[in-house]
Specification:
The complex is a heterodimer of chains A (270) and B (199). In chain A, α3 crosses α5 and α4 crosses α6. The longest helix of chain A is centred in the middle third of the chain and has 27 residues. In chain A, the strands form three sheets. Chain A has a five-stranded antiparallel β-sheet. A three-stranded antiparallel β-sheet of chain A has the order 6-8-9. Chain A is an alpha+beta fold. In chain B, strands 1, 2, 3, 4 and 5 form a five-stranded antiparallel β-sheet that branches. In chain B, α2 crosses α3, α2 runs parallel beside α8 and α3 packs across α4. The model of chain B has no long low-confidence stretch (mean pLDDT 92). Classes of the chains: A alpha+beta (270), B alpha+beta (199). Chains A and B meet through β2, β3, α1 and β4 of A and α2 and α8 of B. Chain A: InterPro entries: Kinase-like_dom_sf (IPR011009), Prot_kinase_dom (IPR000719), Tyr_kinase_AS (IPR008266). Chain A: Belongs to the protein kinase superfamily. BUD32 family. Chain A: Component of the EKC/KEOPS complex composed of at least BUD32, CGI121, GON7, KAE1 and PCC1; the whole complex dimerizes.
Chain lengths: 270, 199
Amino acid sequence: MQLITQGAEAHLYKTTYLSPSTPAALKIRPTKPYRHPILDRRLTRARVLQEARCLVRLVREGVNVPAVLAVDWDINNTNNNHSGAGGDVGEGVRGNGAWILMEWIEGCVVRVVIQRWERYIKSRSAAVKLQDNEIEEEEKKVKGLLRRVGAAVGALHKAGVVHGDLTTSNLILRGAEEPAAEGDGEGVSPDMQGEVVLIDFGLASQSIQDEDRAVDLYVLERAFGSTHPRTEPLFGEVLEGYRASYRGSGSVLKRLEDVRMRGRKRSMIG
Amino acid sequence: MSAPLLETIHLSHLPPSMPVHVALYRDVQNAPYLRQQLMSANAEFEYAFIDASTVISRTHLLSAVFRAVNDYMNGRLKSRNVHSEMVFSLSPATNIAESFRKFGITDSTKDLLVVKLSVTPEITHDSVAAHLGQNVEGTPVPFDDETLSKISDIAKIKKAYKLGALNTTPPNQANGTQDNGMRRLELSVLGAIALRGAT
């Protein structure tokens, strides 16, 4: 198993499912030794299940997310207990964490695609004076990608789920090639074909409220501004893609304006 | 009785000492006899006998097997043994008897999937093949997606997983869309299997 990335709550590995030819993503939430055992088991279990439920629902609704292949929300202490019965651990015992096995999405995160594009534009315009039509062509390409990002978020919201942590690192452009090495593929404008797939539902929840949806968009907007300063002026395309994706997007975009005024947290009182 | 086309599979993440043996039969003649052996808990017949019309694909069946074996290894079986648990694991619901009625062998079963886990070293490909060859009266066929697609009853599967609203055959659509619909159905079913019993 190959460790892909590690966050505060979980480790992500690349592994296989059923057969060695089927790649899969394994997200393990290890137990946290500093937490009380009962609380730890409950939190780990609740969070893993929350994530899995959101994903299963989205797959059913046809939204582009990795499918859930298997879940274990309470890895047993007494592993390899082949007796097959009576293995239930008591409430007070510390668990061994939990995991979700998900479909592997082959592609490249949108963050990297846009960063490569920004570098390409920068190096091109330093080398030669870019023609207006070339700039236009390039911008058209990114705008298309951004609209698809907006549409993907819209489809998510339409299905009754909010992501909770939208960034360009949590979006995969399916089929896009990952730069093999640093500086690889430099000097070519990156390919932007392919479906936009949403990943990492660790903070997701089921909600259809305008407020929650608007906060999702706001978080993405802020993340976008800090990760892709050169492309920020085009963020409006994301919102346009979102607007066109489902009924009800209009009131969310209206709410987004309120959220921009005050920030992500609704109430600062108390 | 003909020799079974028994496939022995090593599933990822399960101990190499515990391979799974799977055979698929069509036109089974003695389903009532086989079911009777299960009902009387005949130890010789500790198999998962599954009505193949309820299975979409290899992945579908093997997912249920994987879940059952994982629960077995963690000492969490809800039913009698790991083989009955495989049938139960196909079900999205927590009612064991109902899962047997829906996914298990019935007296009228014609297409049958048989699964056996090597829980002890004595259970090998050859021993399972020999026993099945003597006891299952049916035509052995390969356990692959193409054969399963001819057997599976999509309407029945959708009903069992409460996925009736899911559109698998959009009218007037290109073939690619239809494949997408089946893929979505399969992935939704895998999710339901994985989440069974989550509270």
